[in-house]
């Protein structure tokens, strides 16, 4: 019982961060229908950005070891959003949005090659610039825990850093869903996703909506990456490890559903941690995909996806 | 208000429109009729900028429309109610209307517009919280019209509002359009395959066949024309 609750708690905490990570990708896919293979590497850049902001840009000196890392992580979001904005403007916009009409396969082949190319450049460029030594954003909170006593004889431990990571993830997720559902920008992003041509008729600049989504998606995943980095060391190829999880989360949530991607990521976090109860740790990722296949078998459209749509 | 001169357009090498000239005066209700594949929808897409013309000119309110980027055209006062409705399925009725009102004039007049739209198309008021994708075809068509009206347009372009609808629903849509026109005096440009209804509602008409304007005139002349009577009105 204690072990079960402990794994459940750990799963919820890591799941919230995975959820945020998936939402970044889900936003880009949902609005643009572009499969971004470089997304894991944007996350890697977010991790290093947070790392260098903390160690080299004076955040550590100014805010100390406890609060400093989280401030650097939050700052990495806007930095990567600006980076994503320019990557979209200079590269992605040539093979997506309103230009796809003139491309073969609606631009999907070109998008595939382009984002894979960006991924390779970021991975190997990262290796040259950052080196291959493992880095991590350490905070004293990473190695201490709160003890929770839900019943008399049971106590579970919540890692402080992971708990704060989960709270930050949830807060950002709430802000994002408010943005998507309540604001004019959010609604026009959804309109552009639903029907780009009709959105143009309304006076929505679809290419600009895509740029906004891409920038937001990069920024959000960068923050999720930074949060993960408080507990997991990283290296320039770390994106490869997470990009699969991101896609699994987006598919589980339902392709195109932005909020669904969060629950997809949450599910993966839970399965990963709960599987350690019955399986050896090495099989964590295998367990994720076994459950993934099972869910997709029974619900191919994902949790929040729609099977059919009237038009 | 809208002046199209010698317009030619098409998809890659295949021309669809050939030297088409059409004039819509302020306050007019103009119908463009013709069979399937005559180029009616392409004409609308060219006006909205989705299709690039290969020749000719379009001016709207004295502005050279072809020099205006497509998403900016709605802001000039052109509302396009597209073929097949094309509402935003995952947005609610209210959110769809808000998207129509994304233009400056639409935002300014939002309150007054929404009241009038709900009065003209009460079903939208009843269903304002419903996702547009779950509505029937006729309801979606009314939403598409409401969404166009929400932008406070100077020109409302309607692409086959009767498409895929039961005859009684189509009749109701036409009746609503005539009522909206009567009350608002809005300039309208209608493209239709249901020639009889279209010519009845409009005060001026063009017949488009295989990318050419073959006939034009006011509704009385067109309805009296032998070719129109034989080919389209079944008389």
Low-confidence stretches of chain A: none
Order of strands, widest sheet of chain A? 1-2
Head-to-tail CA distance between termini of chain B: 34 Å
Provide the structure class of chain B: alpha/beta
Overall morphology of chain A: globular
Terminal residue distance of chain A: 50 Å
The class by helix and strand makeup of chain A works out as: mainly alpha
Shape of chain B: globular
Helix content of chain A: 55-70%
Radius of gyration of chain A: 20 Å
Instruction: Name the poorly predicted regions of chain B.
Output: none
Largest interface: A-B, 23 and 33 residues
Write the element-wise H/E pattern of chain A from the N-terminal end onward.
Answer: HHHHEEHHHHHHH
How can the largest sheet of chain B be summarized? 6 strands, mixed
Oligomerization state? heterodimer
Description:
The complex is a heterodimer of chains A (311) and B (235). By secondary structure, chain A is mostly helical. Chain A is 69% helix and 4% strand. Chain A has helices spanning 2-32, 39-55, 59-90, 108-130, 160-182, 184-194, 196-202, 206-228, 238-253, 258-274, 284-298; strands at 145-151, 154-159. In chain A, helix 1 (2-32) packs antiparallel against helix 10 (258-274). The radius of gyration of chain A is 20 Å and the shape is globular. Chain B is of the alpha/beta class and 235 residues long. Chain B is 39% helix and 27% strand. Chain B contains eleven helices and ten strands. In chain B, strands 6-7-8-3-9-10 form a six-stranded mixed β-sheet, with helices on both faces. In chain B, strands 2-1-4-5 form a four-stranded antiparallel β-sheet, with helices on one face. In chain B, a hairpin with a 2-residue loop joins strand 4 (53-60) and strand 5 (63-64). The radius of gyration of chain B is 17 Å and the shape is globular. The model of chain B has no long low-confidence stretch (mean pLDDT 93). Classes of the chains: A mainly alpha (311), B alpha/beta (235). Chains A and B meet through helix 6 and helix 7 of A and helix 2 and helix 3 of B.
